[in-house]
Design the sequence.
């Protein structure tokens, strides 16, 4: 416990604590019947604080969260989210985990070496995201996915985010922040029909703040690692 407390800054511990508190309070008020939702949200927010440090443990937790979130999405016929996370995010979390473990900063396994991508790398990511989105659109349409347009946009932002994560770019966090906004809209639509899903909305609102912090922390890591 002492090692964990020393590993994170006071700000990071405060961010994690308030995130856990916020998610738990809203769950207790609106959604006491689905503890699975609470557990998945807590795992997700814990994953983000490790990812913000560039720690591969974050990718392991992302993998677990992805599987749990896929099951939650299935309950509301958000097949796009289910297929995206179980069929894309989870496998790519494994790819990202391998990439992070293979590129530690100065042999330090708890911190990945931040990468500077070329314009070509971003263009490849955008092209791949477009292709994946097009394919998923027809797949999701076939399964009569709820809120098809928003679900398809979620596929686009999720794929681009995990692509940048595997490439170890600080901008992966901004891509995830954009994805958080899309998911907030998606689950607000679900909440209009079932108030219990508000806990999922709160979950991604908390994720948004954590992902924004991740971006700025990765930029600091990048400057420190490059000696700027």
Sequence:
């Amino acid at each position: 416990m002492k090692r964990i407390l020393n590993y994170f800054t006071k700000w990071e511990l405060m961010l994690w604590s308030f995130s856990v508190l916020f998610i738990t309070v809203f769950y207790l008020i609106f959604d006491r019947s689905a503890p699975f939702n609470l557990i998945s949200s807590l795992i997700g927010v814990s994953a983000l604080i490790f990812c913000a440090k560039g720690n591969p443990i974050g990718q392991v937790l992302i993998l677990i969260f992805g599987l749990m979130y896929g099951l939650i999405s299935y309950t509301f016929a958000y097949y796009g989210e289910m297929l995206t996370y179980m069929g894309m995010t989870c496998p790519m979390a494994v790819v990202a985990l391998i990439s992070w473990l293979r590129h530690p900063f100065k042999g330090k396994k708890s911190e990945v070496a931040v990468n500077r991508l070329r314009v070509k790398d971003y263009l490849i990511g955008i092209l791949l995201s477009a292709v994946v989105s097009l394919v998923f659109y027809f797949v999701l349409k076939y399964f009569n996915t709820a809120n098809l347009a928003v679900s398809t946009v979620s596929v686009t932002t999720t794929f681009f985010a995990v692509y940048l994560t595997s490439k170890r770019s600080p901008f992966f966090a901004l891509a995830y922040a954009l994805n958080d906004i899309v998911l907030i809209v998606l689950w607000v639509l679900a909440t209009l029909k079932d108030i219990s899903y508000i806990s999922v909305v709160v979950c991604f609102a908390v994720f948004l703040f954590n992902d924004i912090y991740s971006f700025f922390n990765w930029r600091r890591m990048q400057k420190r690692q490059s000696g700027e």
